[in-house]
Amino acid sequence: MTARILSIGTATPPTVITQDRVRDFFARQPDADRLTQRLIRATFDAAEIERRYTVLPELGEAGSDGIFIDAQGVLRSPGTALRNAEYIRQAPDLSRQAAQAALEEAGVAASEITHVVTASCTGCFAPGPDFRLVRDLGLADSTERYHLGFIGCAAAFPALRAAARFCAAQPDAVVLVVCTELCSLHIRPSSSPDQIVASSVFADGSAAAIVTAGSVQRGGLDLERFGTTLTSEGEQDMAWTIGDDGFEMVLTGEVPRIIGREIRGAVDGFLDGNVPDVWAVHPGGRSILDRVQSGLELAPDALATSRAVLRDYGNMSSATVMFILRETLHDDTIAAGATIAGLAFGPGLTVESALLTKRTAAVSPASGHDRHLAVAG
């Protein structure tokens, strides 16, 4: 039996930051010379992001004194231990809220969950996010737990692939998949183009899915198959490492160009000539979406949902494509039987692919931002 996503729940922190305000904040930093200021403004303005969510309240409130920003509006440089402590404090509850939303939408009781798969690359601790979900949701002590760490923006599809494998091996399995990223915990003042790009796009959020093969009468998204492709170059162009002052992103200007050159080969090999009805592409940034669209010769509106999620939420790393899939699940203009091709990109450079089929929707969603929970940090 084919595993199916029955529901997807999402959650964001309560602090909203607008792109123009956070752009001006970074441009005002004392160490930003005129060249850096011009680069910051150009990069932020080109991102096509209007707002994002963050677990850092001081980033959204002028004059607020916090761990990351002092009362004069100067960005601090806390060490990795302090940043990770904030991840431990805030990530579990955001995960719980997204998971609870998914459970409620699917009509699945916590006691029915047999497996938990978590993914995150913005913090680490043990007992980890998988353990906390079992405890915080009141799942059975016997629940199998798996955590995928440091895979980056592409992690959602490996997590869903693992869930599908569990369902194939155990037909009565009910798997909770949760991707939670607190990217803003790793912001820093910098004149590096890589760090400026990271500051211009990354945000915080969580998404959870309920996956099972045992409720085929319910609507959802069938997980038909998955694919992984390593590009022939890019290992040094997209990387994510742990430094003394937080996690450090390498995201060079070559990444969109590499994706543009290699996306056709990766997708053709995965789809084998079949053309999907819908595309769900991780919006690593506007330029990445542009390169995917041109490289695959897609219609102008083919990536509209990816662009809308980028505009309204920014890049939440692994959680982002789950937000896109949720929109697809609840889009009444997408008919039952429609095929959906998902693409996400991670360090390596790695292309993770998924082919899904939409079935009759299980619930009628609310509209707009009411379709996710905003929770306190």
Account of the 3D structure:
With 377 residues, the protein is α/β, with parallel strands linked by helices. It has a domain at 224-362: 3-Layer(aba) Sandwich (Peroxisomal Thiolase, Chain A, domain 1). The chain is built from 10 helices and 14 strands. It has helices at 19-27, 34-46, 80-106, 129-137, 156-169, 193-201, 254-271, 286-295, 304-313, 320-329, and strands at residues 4-12, 15-18, 51-54, 115-120, 144-149, 174-182, 204-212, 221-230, 238-243, 246-251, 278-281, 339-346, 350-358, 373-374. Helix 4 (129-137) links the parallel strand 4 and strand 5. Helix 3 (80-106) crosses helix 4 and helix 9 packs across helix 10 (320-329). Mean pLDDT is 92; it is low at 361-371.
